[in-house]
């Protein structure tokens, strides 16, 4: 199977997103550029539930091919619109995971969608988030192009897609998935903290930034998290890598 490791990693991310409830029906899309120097990318097939996706199901697309949507095995139009633009315009992004997890989407629906640094989990994203405040409808090509422009900064880990959902990016599936997982945790902590009605204990800027840097430098944290998730699937749901 061509690009087996890349396919296996991405299939693992789909299966775990379904397990964690990050998916929404048969919508949402994850993509992965197959090499550092190649803009071609893997993405989920049209309207396939995350819990059923296998490595061999993934489509291999060229973001510069204008005939993609005319082909028999074309992807979902919004998947092409968003992820095609990302892989054309943002070569520093190898992996892009777009989903609508509950708390991340709640945060994206608030007038103020900032992830306040109220604890260690939220602080890991300090100054590493961009908020899209110009939602223009479903992510067809024009919307995808606009979103890609917001991700030109390689320091960005997360795009909070206002009125829409969230996009986690990274240089590997493991890194991007770890960011998606912890951002949803962080959003849940903040939303539930708002629900108490009490005043928030917000970290000083210097401590929030220090925490973000220390988390980023922590050895192999994202990679080990993802390897453990893969090991669980190997034992319990091994058809994902077929």
Q: How would you describe this structure to a colleague?
A:
This protein has 242 residues and is α+β, with helices and mostly antiparallel strands. It has a single domain (4-241), classed as 3-Layer(aba) Sandwich (L-fuculose-1-phosphate Aldolase), CATH 3.40.225.10. The chain has eight helices and seven strands. The protein has helices at residues 4-20, 77-89, 102-109, 120-123, 141-150, 173-196, 205-217, 221-236; strands spanning 29-35, 38-43, 59-61, 95-99, 129-132, 158-161, 165-170. A seven-stranded mixed beta sheet has the order 3-2-1-4-7-6-5, sandwiched between helices. Helix 2 (77-89) packs parallel to helix 5, helix 3 crosses helix 6 (173-196) and helix 6 (173-196) crosses helix 8. It starts with a helix and ends in a 6-residue tail after the last helix. The relative contact order is 0.17.
How does the SSE layout of this entry go?
Blueprint: H1 4-20, E1 29-35, E2 38-43, E3 59-61, H2 77-89, E4 95-99, H3 102-109, H4 120-123, E5 129-132, H5 141-150, E6 158-161, E7 165-170, H6 173-196, H7 205-217, H8 221-236
Parallel strand pairs: 5-6
Antiparallel strand pairs: 1-2, 1-4, 2-3, 4-7, 6-7
Helix pairs in contact: 2-5, 3-6, 6-8
